[in-house]
Amino acid sequence: MMNANDHTYDEPAEEKVYTQLASISNDYRKYDDLKRPGSHHSYFEPQPDPKPHHVCKDVKIKFWIAFTTVIIIGLVAGLTYIVIRFRYNTEECIKAYDSGNAGFRISETRAECPNDWQTFDNRCYKEFPERRTWFQAADHCRSIGTDLVSVHTERETSFLINNFTQTFQWIGLSNYQNNGKFVWSDGTILNYTDWRNNEPNNFNNNENCTHLFNLYPKKWNDNNCFMSLRFICKMQVYPRCGPGVWIYYKDSCYSFNTLLDFDFTDARSFCRNNGSDLVIIGSKEEYNFIISQTTKHQGADFWIGLQKLRNQTYIWIDGSHPTYLAWGIDEHKADNNLCVKSSSMYGNWYGDSCSNQNRVVCEKRLLV
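Above: the chain's sequence. Below: its structure in token form.
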């Protein structure tokens, strides 16, 4: 009967790092079948022999079997001890590495708008002169991590009209779906409107999108979504993520190392040397953002900051428990590896030996 702390051969074999498990020669593979000499299970069961000179031979065989059994039991006991110590020491190394960096802090990033954007109430705004349909404009804003502007106060409307003086610009309000109900494309609530007189009028039953109307009175007007107009994008204040190639998304900066491969420990060191750490994915939305970047590099797998403890539970490297998981089918049930990677091919997560080489997703969160 196995105790809770015992391990099968497969577990240490799959988690070996730079060594191989000791093997037992073929002569000893079935030591469990060896019983005391004379039992009906013995490989060398003595047979009655009326000749006296065979007595010594029987004694030698019995002694050889007993001696061999003792040696095999000793080898197995030693092997079991080595396996248990190896697994224990591996986990202790991981714990020591983390505790040794307990004082590590991701460097602070300051929040500012890019040079060609304008700031208002902790938000960034930019008018794009290219003329696009409402749908094309929305797609362009989203492709750069923003959205068509939503407007929530009279002060914000005044800011837009005074700073973006072209005649018409798309904003993010539309009712082409939602049963004719106007909604903002960025998902914020509709708590303020500033329509021109008799608007929205849905002229010819074909006006489902909204733009600024910068002729007196300077207010909002509904229009055909397929008109080509300028447009205004809006985003939260952009953080200065620091040197290097970083992508800002919802209060975090992300770096996708697509050139170098590291084992798990070196991957953390790589991120920390850049003032960040391995990515912690807390939601479906963040997961979608991550795979939108990693799937650009088919065939590469990326370390994420998820690890498995000895009690088979998973935690993020900051000690928090997962609130969102994206395992491949049955992956978390069958896998015995301690570290986790994200596949660029399928977008799912898979266990992997911590000593294997993968690429890296680093993250540093904006301190607000």
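The chain has seven helices and 16 strands.
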